[in-house]
Specification:
The structure is a homodimer. By secondary structure, chain A is α/β, with parallel strands linked by helices. In chain A, about 35% of the residues lie in helices and about 25% in strands. Chain A has 20 helices and 26 strands. In chain A, the strands form 3 sheets. The first copy, chain A, has a 9-stranded mixed sheet with strand order 14-15-16-13-9-12-11-10-17. In chain A, strands 18, 19, 20, 21, 22, 23, 24, 25 and 26 form a 9-stranded mixed sheet that branches. Chains A and B meet through α2, α4, α10, α18 and α20 of A and α2, α4, α10, α18 and α20 of B. Chains A, B: Keywords: Lyase, Metal-binding. Chains A, B: Catalyzes the conversion of 3-dehydroshikimate to protocatechuate (3,4-dihydroxybenzoate), a common intermediate of quinate and shikimate degradation pathways. Chains A, B: Belongs to the bacterial two-domain DSD family. Chains A, B: It catalyses: 3-dehydroshikimate = 3,4-dihydroxybenzoate + H2O.
Chain lengths: ~625, ~625
Amino acid sequence: MPLPKSIATVCLSGALPDKLEAAALVGFQGVEIFENDLLTYDGSPEEVGRLCRDLGLAVTIYQPFRDFEAMPEPQRRRNLDRAERKFDTMQALGTDLILVCSNTQPATLPEAERAAADLREMAERAAKRGLRVGYEALAWGRQVSLWRQAWDIVRQADHPALGLILDSFHTLSRGDDLAGLEAVPAEKLFFLQLADAPRLSMDVLSWSRHFRLFPGQGELPVADFLRDVLRAGYAGPVSLEIFNDEFRAAPVRRIARDALRSLVLLDDQVRGAVPVPASPLPAAPTLAGIEFVEFAVDDAAREALGGFLGTLGFRRAGLHRSKAVELQRQGGVNLVLNSEPDSAAAERFEMFGPAVCAMALRVDDPDRALARARALLSPAWQERVGQGEQRIPAIRAPDGTLVYLVRTGSDIWADDFQLLPGEGGAPAFTGIDHVVQALAPGHLDGFVLFYRAVFGLDAEPVFELPDPFGIVRSRTLSAANRTVRLPLNVSESRQTGTGRFVSAYAGAGVHHIAFAAPDAAALVAAAPDAPMLEIPENYYDDLAARLGLEDAQLAALQRAHLLFDQDAQGGRFTHAYTQAFQDRFFFEVVERRGGYDQYGAANAAVRMAAQARQQKK
Amino acid sequence: MPLPKSIATVCLSGALPDKLEAAALVGFQGVEIFENDLLTYDGSPEEVGRLCRDLGLAVTIYQPFRDFEAMPEPQRRRNLDRAERKFDTMQALGTDLILVCSNTQPATLPEAERAAADLREMAERAAKRGLRVGYEALAWGRQVSLWRQAWDIVRQADHPALGLILDSFHTLSRGDDLAGLEAVPAEKLFFLQLADAPRLSMDVLSWSRHFRLFPGQGELPVADFLRDVLRAGYAGPVSLEIFNDEFRAAPVRRIARDALRSLVLLDDQVRGAVPVPASPLPAAPTLAGIEFVEFAVDDAAREALGGFLGTLGFRRAGLHRSKAVELQRQGGVNLVLNSEPDSAAAERFEMFGPAVCAMALRVDDPDRALARARALLSPAWQERVGQGEQRIPAIRAPDGTLVYLVRTGSDIWADDFQLLPGEGGAPAFTGIDHVVQALAPGHLDGFVLFYRAVFGLDAEPVFELPDPFGIVRSRTLSAANRTVRLPLNVSESRQTGTGRFVSAYAGAGVHHIAFAAPDAAALVAAAPDAPMLEIPENYYDDLAARLGLEDAQLAALQRAHLLFDQDAQGGRFTHAYTQAFQDRFFFEVVERRGGYDQYGAANAAVRMAAQARQQKK
C-alpha cells in the first residue's frame, strides 16, 4: 500500500478553501492545517473541519504550537492555558494531533527535565480529550535543535499521548542523520514531515522559511531519510511542509500537482523499505537522443525558417502526407515545421509566434514511459492522425509543450511523410547536442521535478549567469548517457522591455538548439551565408591572455566567430551561435572534445551582450 | 574640495557606452572599467578610452586581474604574460592603474614571500610602461583575505609602482576594521572602493556578488570606514563598486543618480576628516509632522472620496480660491483632493486613477531643505500658482510624487483657500501617524537613500511579511522625533493578477494612510457608517490564547474590528483598517500607548487576507 499522503496548507497559495480544494483535487489524502492559514480565514474551525471532510481530506495535524516548553512562570502557566484553547480548535477541526516545535525564546530554561515535565503535563491534558502531542526539534531551537535531544525529552516525559515528530529539513540542513532512530519505539513516531532544499550557505532559519523545495527538486537526501524512518517502523502519513516564496506566488493547482508528484516519486524511490508500495512505478525510460524538434509556424514563417536553416546546410527532406508539415534535415538532425491549422502547433503559434511546440525523445519503450508519466500525474496526449499514419504518444511538459515518445531505432518518417530525394550538405551535424528552454519566473523547480521524475534525468546544481540587464539562473537536466541534455534558464530580471534578450523568451519555451558537429570550424566555414553572431575582438584578446592560445588558433576561432572553453581536465568546447531568427530563437554549432561535459557558461555573457547589440540594431 | 567621484561600470545596466554616458551625465568624474564590460563590448579599448575622454571621464582603474600571485609554475610565468597583455589594454584605455585581487585558487601557495616576489615582478614590468599595480584583499581570498595581510605583502614587495587598494565591503563584511592603517604610508594607498550592504547571514561571496548597496542604503559603517581612510592620508578618488542584481536590471540613469547621491551624502558625513569638502551640505531639516496628503482625483472620485472620508468624521473645510481643489479635515489631519485639470495631479490621475500625488512635510526651514535636496541631485519643483497665492516649494520623490516643504507653524491654508465654517466631529484625530507606500520591485533601496539623504530620516532594518500570495518586504523610514513615519513596502510576488492586493498598488505609491487617535475604539464607535475591514473570529480566539486578554477587552476589540499588538516593553498598539477606496488605497485608525514604536506587523497577514477576501467579493 502506498504511504498516505498529506500536505501542509502553508505550501500552497490563496485562501484556505482554495488550498484545501487543490490538495483534494490532485489526490492528497490529508492536510496539515497551518495555524496562520486558519487565523486569517473568516470561517470557523468547525467549518474548516467540515470542508475537509466534504473533500475527503483527513486533517492529519494542527501546527505549529510554538515556544511552549521549559519557560519560567508565569509564562509556563499561561502556555498551558494557551494549549487548552488550541485543543478546542483541534477538536473543532477534527484532528487529534498537534505539533509542538522546540522553543526558540531566549528565556527557555536549559533543563531537559523541565521541558519533559511541561510536555508531560500538556500530553496529560490532551489525553483527557483523546488528543495527542507531537514534539519536533526545530533546527534553530534554543535548547533543542536535534531530533535526538527531542527524543530524550519525549522519553523522559514518558506519556502515551506524547511522541516524536521528524522533519527531513530540520535534520538534513544541520548535516545530521537518523542514526540511532531504530532505538525509538515505532509507536513513539507520531508524524513525519518531508522537505527538500537546495544547498545554500545562509542561516538555517532564512533557508528554511523561503527556499524549501518538494522532494526531488533540491539537493538533500530526502529518500534516504524516508527509508530510515520507514525501517524504524513508522507507518503514518508522509506530509510535505514546504515554505517557498515562489510556490506561495504560483497558481495553487500547479503547485499541488508538483507536490503530489514528488511524493509518488519518493514512494518509488523507497521501494524495498516497509511498507512496500502496491504498484511500483514503471522504470524510467532509457533515452537515446532527440529524434526531432518541432516548430509552430505559419506559411510565411515556415518559408523564412526554412531559408534560415538552409544557410546551415539543412534541406527540405519530406512533406507530411496529410498535414501542412515539413521535415528539414541536416545529417542526424530532424526539425519539423508545422503550419497545420487547428492543431496544437497552431495554438502555440497564436500565442507566441514562431516557437518550438514539441520535442521527441527516443526511448526504449514508449508504452512503459507513458505509464510512468501517467502514474506521475502527467497524462498522455494525442494529436489527431490521418488514415494509415503513425500514432506517436506524447505527454505535456509543465508549460504545455509536447514531449513525443519515439521507440529507439524505429522509423517514424516513412509512413507519414513523403520523403524527398536530395543530398545533405557536407560537413554534417551528428545530432542535437542540447535544447535550452527559457522558463517563466517560478517555473524552474517544477520543470526540474517533471524531467527528473518522468524521464529519470539527472539535475545539475543551479548555475548563475550575468546578462547585460540582470541575472540568469540555469540548471541542466541530462540523461546519464548524455544523449539528452536540457539546460533550463530563468531570468531574474523583473522588468521586461526592449533589449532584454533572455527575458523576451520567458515562458515561450525553447530559445536555442545546439547541433553537434565533429568539426565546428569546418562546419561554419562551409556555411558562409549563415548569419553567425559577431563576437567582439576584445573576447579574443582576453582568450589569448587567459589560455595562452597560439596566434593561428586564435585567428581561426575569430574568423569563424567561434567561442572556446576548456575544462580542468583538458576537455575542449568550440562553439558558435547564429543570430536570432525573428528575435525568437537561435541555433548553436558545438564541438565537444576530450570529454568536455559543460555548456561554455564562461562565454554566456559575451553571447548575451552580442545578442543585445544585435537586437538594438 | 570634495573628493573626486568614480564608479565601476559593473554597477550599471546596459552596454558599456550606456554606462559611461549615464555616469558622465549625472556628474561622475571617473569610472572603473570592469573587465567583463569591456570583453563583451564590440569596440576596441582605444575606442572606449576615447569615449571616456570625450565624456570628460577619467578611467580611474582597470579591474579585476584575478588569481595572479603565488601560483606554481608554469602558471606563474603564464600569469606574467597575461599581465603584459592587460597592460596593453590599460594603455589603450588610458589608465595607469590595475587592480589585482587576492588569489582564490586552491593551488595558491601559502607563502607571503612568493606573493610579494610575484607582485614585485609585475610592478617592475608595469613601471617600465609608466603603469601601477594595486593589490586588494578579497574577503574570500585563498591565502589573503584581510587588508593587513595584503599590506604585509605590498610592504615586503617594496616597489614604488605597487600599492594597496582598500574596499569597504571586503573589510566590513568580515567584521574587520581599519585599526593600524595609520602605519601605512599615504603614498601606498593607491585606490579606494566603497560599497554598503544589508546585514545578511549568508556566505560572503554570494553576499558580495548580489546584494551590495550604495553607501547609505545598507547597514555597514561605510562613513566611519571612509573617515579612517582619509585620516590615513588618502587623497585619491572614492569609487563605488556595487554588485547588485536589482541595480543591473534597473534604468541606468536612475541608478547612476542614486550612486552619486550616495557619495555626496558621504562627503558630508566625513566632514572634519581631511580633505574638507568646500561646500558642506545644508543641514537636514527638523521635521514636525505631515501637514497634508494630496490625492489626484477627478470630479466623480472627489465626490466619492469625500463621502468615504465623511464616514470617519472628515468634513469639507475649504475650497481653493483658483483651482478645483478641496480641503478635507478631521482634527489635526488635512487631506487635499485635487481635480484641477492640466496639473501634476491630473497627470497622476491619468496614469493611476485616484492616487496620492503629493505629501507635505513640516520643516524648520524650507529654503535650507530645498538647498540640501538640490545638492543631493533632487531638484526643486514648482506648481503654477494664482495671483496672491502661496508658493510652496516642493521636490520630486524618486517615483515622481511631490514632497512639499511647509514651514513649521505657518498657515498655508488661509491665503489659498476659502475656509468653510463647520464643527469637526468628535472624537478627533490628532494627526497623521504614518503613510505607507507600495513601491515597484527594485525601487526600495533608491527610496531609502532619498529619504535618508534629503530628509535625514532613519531607516529601520528590512522586515518580511507573508501575504496570501507571496512575500512583502518592508522597511520603515522615520524622523528621530517620530513626527514622520514612512513605511515602504515592496511585493516580491512576480505575478500580477486579481486577488493580489498589495501588488495591485506596486508603483502607484501611497496605498495606506494611518490617522492617530487618542482612543481608537471610541473613534470607530463614533463612526458607525465607516466601512471597516472585517476581521475573522479566529484572530480573536488566537489573541486570547496568545496574550491572555480579558473576555470583555476581547469583545470590545472584536466589536470595533480592532487589531491589537503588544511589544516586549508592554507598549500597546490598537488599530483598525477601513476597506479599500475603489480598490486603490485605504485608511487606518491607530492608537499608540506606552511608547509602542512599531506598526502591528504581527497583524499584517490577517489584514492582507481580509483584503484579499474583500477584493474577491
